[in-house]
Amino acid sequence: MELLLDLISAVCFILGALLILSGGVGILRFPDFFTRMHAAGITETLATSLILIGLMLIAGWGLVLFKLVLILLFILLTSPTASHALAKSALHGKLKPILHNEHSK
Amino acid sequence: MLIMLAVVLLTVMVMALARALLGPSIYDRILAVNLFGTKTVLLIAVMGFLFGRPDFLDIALVYALINFISIIGVLRYFEYSDSKRIEGEP
Amino acid sequence: MNKHTISLFCILAVLWLFNSGIYTPLLLILGLVSIGFVIWLSLRMGIIDDESQPLQLSRKLPAYYFWLIKKIIQSNIDVVVLVWRGNGAISPCVATLPIGQQSEIAKVIYANSITLTPGTVAMNIENNSVLIHSLTTHSMEELREGDMARQVSRLEM
């Protein structure tokens, strides 16, 4: 049982690490602010969840588990608010997104 | 496994810092700092497990709170700093 | 003492009990005092209502969360593939979509779900429409088909 949990958490860690690296690459690679925001989105939803779930699996029952759940909930609840606030203020700041149609014409 | 995770997190934090330095707009920098903050939360949690001190999770929790509030605060400052653009705001 | 205040009290009590981990009489009394203080502040601010404590949704939320998690995993995979394929693969676009939901809270849930799924970000909500930036035209089409909107409408009923 112990071994199984360790194995699942290792899989979670590897997947989370891959996702987080992709997000990091995306934030460097994408052409403008609005597209970079999507890249930051993947590191904040699934990658964070996977890493924290992996930690939960090796934590065992107890207060530590509850605190990890709390951190996960908090990040999941606040990250859309932060992204929305960022997008809205960028829009107010007259930042123009690069659009596909303009690009191809 | 935890060490690998910590190294990956640090790498991504360096990437976020690079984006914060490159810019070009102020919003890119804020986005990068936000990303850096959430990765710091994860790094603190992972470090807590790595050193066998789960008390670190309290710090991670508080850091997550501070990170969110500081981002919103900085954004409000930049969103409404130019009062000519938005009517009805002091 | 309505049900919203009681629900806030329960949430705060659970938070205190599990975060402290020390159960001596002094700390429990301090916890009770701070919970009372927070509830007094919230009552004074008038923020205890069915918007901050959406109890009326609690029976339908688990099914919605299950659907949302599935959606988030799907779109995460999509965006990761796009990241590694590079700038040629993306087709960013901006569009205004109408919101069918009536209540404020359903609108907020809809917009936040859009932002939470990578690949689409809700940028602005005006009366009954939401301005969306999307990483590909494909994911914009998916939103336009209204699968997510239907799921949120189911919450509202």
From TrEMBL, chain A:
Q: Name one GO molecular function term.
A: sodium:proton antiporter activity
Query: Domain of life here?
Result: Bacteria
Keywords of this entry: Membrane, Transmembrane, Transmembrane helix
Q: Does the keyword Transmembrane helix apply?
A: yes
InterPro entries, per database record: PhaG_MnhG_YufB
Q: Which Pfam families match?
A: PhaG_MnhG_YufB
User: Where do the TM regions start and end?
Assistant: 7-30, 50-77
Q: Would the keyword Transmembrane helix be found if you checked this record's keyword annotation?
A: yes
* Name listed for the protein in its UniProt record: Sodium:proton antiporter
The record lists the organism as Paraglaciecola arctica BSs20135
Q: Source taxonomy lineage?
A: Bacteria, Pseudomonadati, Pseudomonadota, Gammaproteobacteria, Alteromonadales
Automatic annotation (TrEMBL), chain B:
Classify the protein's membrane topology as the record does: Multi-pass membrane protein
Q: Which domain of life is it from?
A: Bacteria
Q: Name one GO molecular function term.
A: sodium:proton antiporter activity
The residues that cross the membrane are 30-52, 59-78
GO CC annotation:
plasma membrane
Keywords, ordered alphabetically: Cell membrane, Membrane, Transmembrane, Transmembrane helix, Transport
InterPro entries the record matches: MrpF/PhaF-like (IPR007208)
Q: Where in the cell is it found?
A: Cell membrane
**Main localisation:** membrane
Transmembrane as UniProt keyword: yes
- What family is it from? Belongs to the CPA3 antiporters (TC 2.A.63) subunit F family.
Q: Which PANTHER family match?
A: NA(+)/H(+) ANTIPORTER SUBUNIT F1, NA(+)_H(+) ANTIPORTER SUBUNIT F
Spell out the protein name for this chain: Multicomponent Na+:H+ antiporter subunit F
Q: Taxonomically, what lineage is the organism?
A: Bacteria, Pseudomonadati, Pseudomonadota, Gammaproteobacteria, Alteromonadales
UniProtKB/TrEMBL annotation, chain C:
For this UniProt record, the keywords arranged alphabetically read as follows: Cell membrane, Membrane, Transmembrane, Transmembrane helix
Of the GO CC terms on this record, one is: plasma membrane
Where does this protein chiefly localize? membrane
One GO MF term = monoatomic cation transmembrane transporter activity
Membrane topology, as annotated, equals:
Multi-pass membrane protein
Membrane-spanning residues: 22-43
Q: Does the keyword Transcription regulation apply?
A: no
UniProt subcellular location? Cell membrane
Q: Which family does it belong to?
A: Belongs to the CPA3 antiporters (TC 2.A.63) subunit E family.
What's the protein here called? Multicomponent Na+:H+ antiporter subunit E
Query: Whose protein is this, by species?
Result: Paraglaciecola arctica BSs20135
